[in-house]
């Protein structure tokens, strides 16, 4: 059975303009699923529906068989900007989701420290956000989203503001941590290579609809022909140029 399920979802904002139309999306438990699409096509809105922050006008959304509002404590969210609280040290920022529910105990602190250590920030627990680089702040935001051990992690272009090297490091960190915990991930990005690297499947959206889904599991070698072919197929689905030689190669291999 699917873990995250959006079935026949219609959604439009209060101004009346319809945005999502009959959208169906299913993620198996433990699947890492990436969404790509042009600016304004509805990716963030889809994430907010999956989180229960917006309600569909028609259709159903469920997380582990219940409405997302009922699963809220089992859902982690990472936004494009790290949104850390400047006046709290790193450790307290990571513990924030716990503090909003109850007073953090020794086990919570240990869990937060372990997450920071796994993300290479073991020595930064008592620093303040302004004393960290952009990449380090993004790692803190990721640790914060993982501190309650969520079953579902929703990420909205979390690494978009980072340089290419830091972004690749964080992609590898995310993949390792979510695989080891069996976390189900819905990841929105503009970066097609990021989607191919991270995803088991990639969905392409256009104007509120799903126009293509591509299985990309196991494509982690960015220099491999299979990676390039998946990248090119996704670019084509987004009506972006891929170069003649690549277009010919894709036409030969594509089902
Ligand atoms: N609160 C709102 N009220 C009205 N319209 C909105 C609201 N939020 C978003 N929209 C509109 O809905 C459309 C989809 O927005 P959404 O943020 O889901 O797009 P997106 O695909 O995530 O874009 P981007 O890649 O630029 O982040 C856009 O046209 C946007 O202007």
UniProtKB/TrEMBL annotation:
Which UniProt key words apply to this protein? ATP-binding, Cell membrane, Membrane, Nucleotide-binding, Transport
Q: Does the keyword Cell cycle apply?
A: no
Query: What positions does the domain ABC transporter occupy?
Result: 4-232
GO MF annotations for this entry?
ATP binding; ATP hydrolysis activity
* Keyword match Nucleotide-binding: yes
The highest taxon in the source lineage is Bacteria
Describe the family membership recorded for this protein in Swiss-Prot or TrEMBL. Belongs to the ABC transporter superfamily.
Q: What is this protein called?
A: ATP-binding cassette domain-containing protein
Q: Which organism is it from?
A: Ramlibacter aurantiacus
């Amino acid at each position: 059975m699917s873990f995250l399920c959006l079935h026949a979802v219609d959604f439009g904002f209060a101004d009346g303009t319809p945005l999502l139309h009959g959208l169906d999306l299913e993620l198996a438990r433990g699947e890492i699923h990436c969404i790509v699409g042009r600016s304004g096509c509805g990716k963030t809105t889809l994430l907010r529906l999956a989180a229960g922050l917006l309600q569909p006008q028609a259709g159903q959304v469920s997380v582990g068989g219940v409405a997302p509002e009922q699963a809220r404590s089992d859902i982690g969210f990472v936004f494009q900007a790290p949104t850390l609280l400047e006046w709290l040290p790193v450790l307290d920022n990571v513990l924030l989701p716990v503090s909003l529910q109850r007073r953090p105990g020794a086990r919570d602190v240990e869990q937060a420290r372990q997450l920071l250590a796994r993300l290479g920030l073991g020595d930064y627990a008592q620093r303040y956000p302004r004393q960290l680089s952009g990449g380090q702040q993004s790692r803190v935001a990721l640790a914060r989203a993982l501190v309650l051990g969520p079953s579902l992690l929703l990420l909205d272009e979390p690494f978009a503001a980072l340089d290419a090297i830091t972004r690749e490091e964080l992609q590898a960190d995310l993949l390792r941590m979510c695989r080891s915990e069996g976390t189900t991930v819905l990841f929105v990005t503009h970066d097609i290579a990021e989607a191919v690297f991270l995803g088991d499947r990639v969905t392409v959206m256009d104007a509120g609809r799903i126009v293509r889904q591509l299985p990309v599991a196991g494509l982690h070698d960015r220099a491999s022909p299979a990676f390039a072919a998946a990248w090119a197929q996704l670019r084509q689905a987004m009506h972006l140029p891929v170069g003649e030689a690549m277009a010919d190669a894709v036409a030969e291999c594509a089902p």
